Structures are given as structure tokens and as C-alpha cells.
Amino acid sequence: MVIVNIIAICQEVLVSKYTAMFSKCQPFPWNDTIQANIRDLYNTLDILDIDGKRIALGDILPAPSSNGKGHRMLLEGPSGSGKTMLSNTIAYLWAAQSNYFKNPCPLLLHIDLKAVLSNFDEEVYRNLFPDNFKVDQGEFWHLLEQRAEDVVLVIDGYESGKDFPSLLDILNGRKLQQSTVIVTNDHEQCPNLGFQPDLKCFIMGYSMKNVLRCMKTYIRLFGSEPENHPKLFEALEDETFGLSLYITNPFICLLTFGVYQTMKHINLKEITTVANLFETYGIAMASLYCKRQKIDVIGFEFPEDVMEAIEQLTTFAFTSLTDDNKCFTEEEILKETKFQIVFKLGVFHKLTEGTKWRFVCNLMQHFLAAKHLADFVLEDILKLIKDHSLTKHSKYNQTISFLCGIYRNDFDTPVLSSLFTELAVKNVRHTKVSIQEVKSNGMVEIEKKKPRPPSGQILDFGQSLQSLAECYNRDDAFEIISRSLPARIILRRDGIIASKCIYAMQQVLQFPENCIAHLELHVLPLYLYQQEMYINLAKAASKSKTIKSLKLNSNSLELSSKFLNSFLEEAELVDSIVVDNLGKKNPRHITASTWATLQNACQNMGKTNHFSFRNCKEAATVYFVIHHLPNTIQELNFSGCTMNMMCAGEISSHLEHAQCLQKLDITNCHLVGSDIVAIMQGLKLCGTIKSLRLCGAKLDRPATTALCECLKLTRTLSTLDLSHCELSTEMIEKLVCAIVENRSLKRLLLNSTKVSEEGFAAISRSNLEENVQIEGLDDWGYALYT
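C-alpha cells predicted for NACHT domain-containing protein:
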């Protein structure tokens, strides 16, 4: 009973606090009339799970775990995507509507890590509860441990738990094991979490439809009607609008509206980059301040005190960024900036009740820090970058990109070329080159295998690519970076890849100086939300004069089909296309449009020499792909796919009509005797086949007989791979006789093939090795069976 009373007391205090906090953290004056509009605005955020399914705000709290351990849920999103806004909204809805969430919780703790400086337990307690609260700190944490299954912790602004051991204990389940913990995180700020989340969700920002909806809400909040602002919506709906790639970010959307609202005469179409938007926003806020102070401004000639305040503000932003400070008292800000004006420029925002402030968004802090760097001469800029290791850590990606963006129109100094040269050197350092020499018996021998091209992950080049996105009009910058990128680029992340990186990669692929020959992309279902961006990447790759191979590791048949179709529509001769299906489950439903797109992509394979479609677990999809492939492909690989008799019949037909097919790999395709018999019928009539891989096939007597008949007839087959099969003595004897009659076979692979002792003896007696290279004999010791 005592515990229940204490929980009720805590609930009462937290409900009051969260309600007040939500009203104070809005950019608009708070009253009951606009409450519905604000909540409607926040509900437009798109939150996706790892499978690309949209999560409603009411479903965001996971159900209690049944195994005695609460869920650790990661809410990931880039800077400005609305993570803080979302965490505040969750706390407010818990306080204001007890039945809002599908999985309710008795006690929800909203923890803003920006307000926690040293002692996690102490400062969390102090930030949540007033002085002289009835429950002291020790009792509070003891209560949470006792009722851990009823507690949800929403932790906003997680960048590193290394300074808070107590927090890491919670995240790793050593404390409050049964509690549910929701953590918001920006991957660039914290690439290494220090714990393994059970669930991952992604804050994608707004869809373009919801951008328009938000703008209408903003206009109404300022007492006007959308019909009175046609120029705003005309600019937003224009396909050539420079910010269309970024305005789905909620903070960018808000800044765009702030610029429009303050400078209604401005042509939004002239704002082309994010750095350009921040520059315009700074002018807008300075103009608004002067207007309110009734100071006349001619052009952009602001009073000295305003300019000095801005200069001090940029210095403060740079210092706080490099010192990793996110939260400040009013006194701390004024001590460094010395001007009360800085609180009137739309840069700071009240964190919670009290005197603590923060930058309205990390992006704002990064831009101001970049502005501080831009005020120095080139030598000092490079020295500051080196002294603070700004190019070494991903958390400074935005700073460097904004710095380059500030110099985007500077053609008179070598600053931009020097910055991109530094980034190019970093790219070369991150390029992985395969080792071509191996030591053997104390000597160095050159491997005979074809060397792998230099490669690198797109995240390793994120800083230079994001900087390019801010300088899209600078061919000199693109030339420097394009030459520094390796031949093989891998776009792989178990989450969101920064849109600036994808956009810049589109530009690089079309730049004549690039040397990217191999592109590998891991396609996640959640990328369907960004499909236009990835389809544009495919189109850019199709126009590239250097791309020779494309590999798609796919968890989404829909998006990989669209990507492949867009790539093949304009691509010239492509040496290799590989589609690796990574999905553990078969898709429940494949739409008609996906079938049509996949068909079109397959029919365009006439420009391709080698095609691999591997590990597909849906036989109907495999059949569909084989059926629509042209007869001009030289190499086909369906290893790991699930096949049935219809697939086998389609392969047989493809072999029969093939014009230049030389290699066929159907390893581990769950083929049984009757399937293999069907395939052999087509193989007999194929006059071009040189290599056949049947690894793992379940050969029976009819299948072996059909294979032997084929060996007797074919005059082109030079390599046969029967690794991981089981061959009886009778099968081996038939194969030996067939191979003796064959005049073309040069290699027989029997790695880990199970063969009886009599079968091994039959091979030995036949003296096949005189004419055929047999691989796998060294493994007979463990492969024999009786």
C-alpha cells in the first residue's frame, strides 16, 4: 500500500511537470485553442520500424516483455528530425491522456540527457522533482527497482553513455532490468551505442504531403489562412525547389517557414542549400530584431552591437561544440557572449523549467560553429580543424559541410579547394585495398585469384559527400572528391543513410572524373519511404560511364525491383548484376506493380553478361525471374534459391534456347531427382554451356542417369561441380563411364561429397585424373560413408 501511494505521488508531480514542459517548449504562444493544432502537427511525423511499417504514436510504447527483461528500444533519426519533439510529446500525452497509448504504463520518466552533466541518478531525480519532495533520491530509485515492470524511461539526446555508468547499467539490463527504455539517438553523433537495442525504429520526418500540411498549420497558428499564401505553396510544390530534398526534415521545414514569415518578399526558390537556408534565417532573425527595436536597417547593414553579438554567438557555438556542451544557464551564455541580444535571434530555446537553455537544434550549433571558422584565414581554419580533429569524427560532419557551404560561391580564394583536398586525403585513408600477397613456406607468392578492387563504405566518406551536397555548383570540388573515392562503393547501414550522402553520390556518379566501377547497396524495407531518392541514385548510376557491376543485398523485393529497373533502363553494357535476397521471411503479398517492374527489369538484362539472383525463398518469384530473362546472358547464378518442378522446367527451356550461356550455378536449390532430370533435358540441347554447378543436389538413380546421358552428348561442358552431394557406388560407376566418353570435361569438383569406399576405388581404377582434374580427393578421409 505504501508503494502504491508513493507511485501515485510521483505520478501527480510528473503529470503536472510534463504538461507545463510541453506548453513551454513550443515555438508558438501556448493556449487551449491551438493545442489541437500542435498535437495534430506532431502526429504527422513518420516513424518506421526496421521492416518499413509505420508506427502510430499511440503504439510507440512496446508491450511489456514476457521473458522478465524489458525492451530496450532505439528511436533513431538525424539532427532536426524531431527526436526531442517526439519524446516531449510522448511525455505530454502520458500526462494528459491516460488511455492514449495502446500499452499504458503507470510511471513514465522523461529524461533529457542534455540537462544531465555528471551524476546521472542525482540529476535525473533533481530535474524531475521539486526541492523537498516527499520521496528522497534513494527511496525513489529503490521504488523504481521494486516496480521496474511498471516503469518506462524515455531518454532523449543519447550521444554516449560512457560518462554515465549508471545509465549504461540501465541500458544493458544490470539495473531496472524489467523496465522499458526508449532512447533517441542520432547515428552521426553516436555511432557506437554501448548497448544492443531489442527494437529499432526510425524517425523519418515528414512526407512531402505532410510538409504542406505543416505549413498550413503554421500559417493558421499565426492567425492567417493558407489561401492567402499561394507563393509559398507554389515554391514547395515546384520540382526544381532547391530545398525539396531536405524540407522533409521537421527543423528545416520550420526554418523555411520562419524565413518566409519574416521575409515575405523573398523568393524561396533562390535558397538552394541547407547552409544557404541558415544564412537567410540569420538575416531574417536579425532583421526581425531590429524591426521590433524600431531600428532602421538599410539592406543588410545591421548595427554594430547586433553584428558583434552574432560574432560572439558563433564563437560560443564553436567552443561549446568542441567542448561537447549542450546545455547552458543564462549566466553562462551571457558570460561568453556579453549580449542579451543573442536570446532574441531564434537560436536558443528553454530546455525545461528554470534557467537552462540549449540551441534549438544541433544543426543550429553546427552552422554557427562553421560560421565562426569561416571568419579566419585559411591557415587558421586548417589549424583549428586539425587541433580539434574535426575531420576525424562523424559528429562534426555537419560543421564541415556547412563550412564548405559557406564558401560555395567563393571562386577567388583557395579555401574551398584546400578543404576538399583535406577531405580527399581522409577518403584515401579510409579506402580498403585487398592484400594480394600471401606468405607460404617463408616465401611471398602472388595469389592467382582476381584481385578485388579498392573499396569503402559510404559512411567512411560521409563528411566529404555531405560537404559536396552543400557545393553542388562547384565542379572543382567534385573533381577532387571523385578522384579520391575507390572503385567499389558500399552503401550499407542497418538504418538511415544521410540524404545528403545519397544526393551527393548521385552527382558523383554522373561526374566524368569519377572512377566508381562497382556499386553495392543494401536495400532495407524502410528505404521505401525514401524510394524517390534511391530511384534517382539508380538513374544516376545508369548514366555513369564507369559502372561495371551492381550488387543489391535486398530485404525489399519492391524497392530492389524498382532500383534494378531504373538502373537498367538507360545503362549501357553491364558486366555483372547480383541480387542477394536477405529476407528471412517470404513476402506475404507482392503487388501487381512490383511484378510488372520486376518483369521489365529482367527483360532489360540483355545488356548484362553475368546475372545472379541468390537466396530467394519464394519459388514463384524464382520462376518469374527465370521466365523473363533474355537468352543473351553468359552466366547465371541461382544458388540458395528455393526451386520446384516449374523452376526446373523453366531452366531447361532457358538452356535449350540460350545463345551464349556459359555458366550455370544452381547450388543448394533444393533440387531433387525429377527436377534434375528436367534440367538435363535442356542441357543436352545447349551448345554453349561450359560450367555447371549442382552442389548440394539430391541425386537419385534417374537424375544420375540423365546427367550421365548429358555428359555423353555435350561437347562444351568443361567444369562439373558435384560438391556436397551423396553418390552411391552405382552412381560413381555410371559417372566414370560417362566422363570417359566425354571429350570436353576438364574439371570435376567433389569437395565434401559423400562417396562409398567402392566408389572411391572405382574412380582410382578409371585413371580419370590423367585427363580430368579432380578436386576434393584430399577430403575423402572424412567424406566416405558406407
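The chain is about 45% helix and 15% strand.
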